[in-house]
């Protein structure tokens, strides 16, 4: 049996409902996305030169799976009742996020993470979480590193 895959053109991929979306975010990180018309996607995110928070949000239909390839992240989520819970994740660690869970990610400088968004059904399924942003964005990298000492 021979192995001879044929490249798929961007036009062919788009006609199948799959596209690419590359962006530099306001916080300096770079996102390289492969996006499907069914709402699922894959994203490779490269952190900026200085560690930074993303924007707090939640999804109504999609679940997300984050994997840390290099560097570290802090995953923050808002529990029912408004309490925040945070986890420090190192290389090789991962976290799953269910629909309606308000969450945010802090990426250390130059870190690389992979995010898989799945089981959706809606192209636009990103909703801002002002409540969680108010709790996370004020936390500095120094404070987050102190958190890592408690997660050994």
Main sheet: strand order? 1-2-3-11-6-9
Work out the helicity level: 10-25%
User: What overall form do the CA principal axes indicate?
Assistant: globular
The gyration radius over C-alpha positions equals 17 Å
- What string, H for helix and E for strand, traces the elements in order? HEEEEEEEEEEEEHH
Largest sheet: 6 strands, antiparallel
E-strand count? 12
The low-confidence runs, each spanning 5 or more residues with pLDDT under 50, are none
How large is the share of residues in beta strands? 35-45%
Write a brief structural summary.
This protein has 152 residues and is mostly beta strands. It is built from three helices and twelve strands.
What do these coordinates show?
By secondary structure, this protein is mainly beta. It is 14% helix and 41% strand. It has 3 helices and 12 strands; from the N terminus they run αββββββββββββαα. It has helices at 10-15, 130-136, 141-149; strands at 18-24, 30-36, 41-46, 52-53, 57-58, 63-70, 73-78, 84-89, 94-97, 102-107, 112-118, 127-128. A 6-stranded antiparallel sheet has the order 1-2-3-11-6-9. It starts with 9 loop residues before the first helix and ends with a helix.
């Amino acid at each position: 049996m021979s192995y001879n895959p044929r490249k798929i053109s961007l036009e062919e991929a788009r006609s199948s409902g799959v596209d690419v979306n590359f962006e530099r975010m306001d916080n300096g990180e770079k996102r390289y996305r492969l996006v499907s018309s069914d709402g699922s996607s894959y994203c490779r995110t490269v952190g900026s030169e200085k560690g930074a928070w993303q924007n707090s949000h939640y999804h109504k239909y999609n679940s997300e799976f984050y994997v840390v390839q290099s560097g570290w992240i802090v995953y923050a989520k808002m529990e029912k009742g408004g309490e925040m819970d945070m986890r420090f994740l190192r290389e090789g660690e991962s976290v799953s996020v269910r629909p309606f869970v308000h969450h945010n990610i802090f990426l250390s400088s130059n870190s690389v993470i992979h995010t898989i968004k799945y089981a959706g059904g809606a192209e636009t399924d990103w909703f801002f979480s002002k409540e969680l942003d108010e709790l996370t964005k004020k936390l500095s990298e120094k404070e987050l590193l102190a958190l890592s000492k408690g997660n050994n």
